[in-house]
Design a protein that fits this description.
By secondary structure, the protein is of the alpha+beta class. Helix content is about 30%, strand content about 35%.
Length: about 170
């Protein structure tokens, strides 16, 4: 027979197993939601990074009173964007002309596609005029961001020739 001394306390094995079982149930509910939240945050971060680079390029063009270029890194929009100002007017990017680089993480599982006037393009090369209008991107440039989930989780940035940028969420992805 077990006897306990006064002042001795603790948990029984049954009580400990009940706590572990409750924690397992709570974790099994929370982990899938957490994965979904991480994917949503990756989409939002990439969308905000691209939108931020485009807003920055437009504001720099207006501030400087000259064209500011925006191009895809390594000729692929999925790598990110480079914003630069052609100081010597030679039409090409030179060292020291870079204003900002936005790199998108390759391992994030995002699929980023660009379209200019309904023609799919991976290489975006355009400029903002001193009035904030877009040159070299047609009437409408769209950047679509999706991940590996099916459903309406994608995001889209739509850049009009006037320089206005519109963001929308809930885009159907394949």
């Amino acid at each position: 027979m077990l006897t306990f001394r006064a002042g001795q306390s603790g948990f029984t094995l049954v009580e400990l197993m009940m706590v572990v079982a409750i924690l397992a149930i709570v974790m099994s509910i929370g982990v899938p939601s957490f994965n979904s939240m991480i994917k949503n945050n990756r989409l939002s971060a990439a969308s905000n990074d691209i939108a931020g680079a485009l807003h920055y390029a437009r504001s720099e063009a207006v501030r400087r009173g000259r064209n500011v270029q925006v191009e895809a890194l390594d000729n692929n929009l999925a790598n990110g964007l480079r914003v630069w100002f052609d100081e010597n007017n030679d039409g090409g990017f030179d060292a020291g002309e870079e204003l900002r680089v936005v790199r998108l993480p390759a391992a994030s599982g995002l699929v980023i596609k660009g379209q200019v006037d309904s023609t799919t393009k991976t290489d975006i090369d355009m400029s903002y005029s001193p009035r904030g209008a877009v040159n070299g991107a047609g009437n409408v440039m769209e950047v679509t961001l999706c991940d590996d989930r099916a459903g309406n989780h994608g995001k889209q940035l739509r850049l009009l020739a006037s320089g206005v940028l519109r963001a929308s969420a809930g885009l159907a992805c394949n």
